[in-house]
Amino acid sequence: MVEGRMKVAVRVRPFSDREVQLGSACVVSVSGQCTVVQVGSELRRFDYDASFESLDHASPSFGSQGRVYEFVAADIVKGALDGCNGCVLAYGGTGTGKTYTMMGTADEPGIIPRVARELFGRPAEAEPSPDG
Fold first, then answer.
1. SS3 track for 74-110
2. Over the stretch 2-52, which tens digit does the pLDDT of each residue have?
3. Per-residue pLDDT reduced to its tens digit, 96-123
4. Closest-CA residue to 25 (of 35, 40, 11, 10)
5. Which terminus of the chain is more exposed, N or C, with fewer CB under 10 A?
6. Rounded (to 5) percent helix, strand, coil in the chain
7. CA angle, corner 14, sides to 11 and 16, nearest 5?
8. What is residue 3's three-state secondary structure?
9. Is the pLDDT of residue 1 over 60?
């Protein structure tokens, strides 16, 4: 059985087209489990169970859909298959990447399609028949 506990993960989304057009400065960075936000000249550090960024595919902090699923949901699915309840909550403001993380695209499925594939896409384990 999977050990029950809450995990908190942050995923920093890439710039929107509008932010790119405006030449917006990036004020959020990720380093290991830490997310750093620049507010004026001050840097504010926030530590989580995991911090992912989606800006640079070569970065060790890059959070692909698969990597985010493995950290956030894989243990919940294992627990569900063992009969335990679980929940994934995506929280954030409008346009922050919640739908992309949860649903993804046809080429890069998010957490929900991956969970559904794990739960319902595998054949049921054969139960022994009463006849032996």
1. HHHHHHHHCCCCCCCCCCCCCCCCHHHHHHECCCCEC
2. 556 889 999 999 898 999 999 999 999 999 999 999 999 999 999 999 999
3. 999 999 999 999 999 999 999 999 886 6
4. 40
5. C
6. 30, 20, 50
7. 130
8. coil
9. no
Helix (H) or strand (E) holding 38: strand 34-39
The residue among 104, 124, 123, 128 whose CA lies nearest residue 114 is: 104
Q: What residues are paired with 50 via a beta bridge? A: 9
SS3 state of residue 29:
strand
pLDDT range class, residue 89, cuts 50, 70, 90: very high
Q: What does the alpha-carbon distance between residue 62 and residue 12 come to, in Å, rounded to a whole number? A: 9
Joined together, the tokens standing for residue 30 give: 């990720």
For the sheet containing 42-47, what is the strand order? Answer: 28-31, 34-39, 42-47
pLDDT at residue 78 above 70? yes
Contact at 8 Å (CB) between 84 and 2?
yes
Alpha-carbon distance 84 to 97, whole Å?
A: 28
Residue from 68, 73, 99, 70 nearest 86 by CA: 73
